[in-house]
Amino acid sequence: MALETLPNELLLEIISEVVLSPTIPDRKLEQSPPIASTTKSGQKGLRRPEIPSGIHAVALTCRHLHNLANTVLYRTVVLDREKDVLLFRRTVNDAREASRSGRTGEVSITLAFLQNAVKRIAITYAPMYADLAVFTLRKLGTKVSNSDISTIITACSGAHMIAVPPQWAPVLRDIRTTAESSEGGEKPNPTELLLGSYVDLSETCCTIPPIAQWRPSAPSTPIHSLPTTPSTTRPSTPDLVIRHDSTGASNDPSPADIFHHVTHLCIAEPAYGWYSPLALLEVFPSLTHIALPRRAHANIENDKFFIEDVKAILQEPRMRVVVITVFPQIQIGVDREQAVSRDAGEPLDLKDSTIWLAAEELRKGDGRLFVVDGHSGSWRKDWQGPAVVASARGPGNWWRKVTSA
Fold first, then answer.
1. Would you state the torsion angle of the CA atoms of residues 190, 193, 199, 203, taken in this order, to the nearest 10 degrees?
2. Is the full-model pTM beyond 0.85?
3. Under 8 Å CB-to-CB from 140, ≥6 apart: which residues?
4. Distance between CA 192 and CA 262 in Å, rounded?
């Protein structure tokens, strides 16, 4: 029986295993006699025959297997490098051109295919440069623009899971404009969103001034503290945190419609400024699961504000799971993270921090709350490796891992 006659479900499992299997050179091929060939410069020589292997070989077997291979390779899209983003943008452009010229039958990757096949998209590439004015990082001279990111996400409008670093998060807020102006584009409606860090996504509908997360307070911070922000800029009660901007031109939240269907929101890492966790409920009105990061041994006053916001979030009946991820204050080495007391020069235990103790005390009274330790860069690592692409579940269910630990 020919391979392509097997049921599609079985073929998809076989192709997934091929993606996972390492490419091992065939010894028989290495021992095969060289064949005559001619180089581009016209010189004649000998070379060994090149035979496709792995997923490439499967894709070249027949049209049916080629389409199934694309289904496996595109159901979880991970763009980890600048080159990856630019190449995928070219794929989208080619699909649009084929649709515009009526050549959709001549190409395997069409706009319809991307909209139906891509279930998860993670853009983990983040250009970096230090910008102290807005506390963001971006690399000068990057070739990737906001328009590129918007075009890619719009093309993959069927994705139910989107993961992006904070640099690209504002693109999501304005995605409706791109979808309306692009040919064949549709507005994405993800149900799960992972943001690399806090970022203000409300803009027109909320006014939440940032407050420096690190200010001199006991215990002393081991790094230079940011300038103190007047306490009058941070409401003392959580019900005052979310407020409409009455002076704005419009309070219409429709530009952020992409957030209205999100039920699972994970903020992966803490930011360098204060962002109110409670304010996220207005931006994401359908949330049932939320993960909030906080840095240990940072600022006791803001720890109290954070806990008050979490208490208010837990008062929402629709909330099923709230995760507080506590991060060490500074990083030492490549893979080790550790907070160090500037005064005593001794390590500070994460679980002795004010935020951890307060979160644990709150957890005892509410089974929906979970407190875990965090590690910088771990969210990107979760999207690395062929297993993420090969699995029909992508990187797996992070929420289930936390709640079942």
1. 20
2. no
3. 129
4. 5
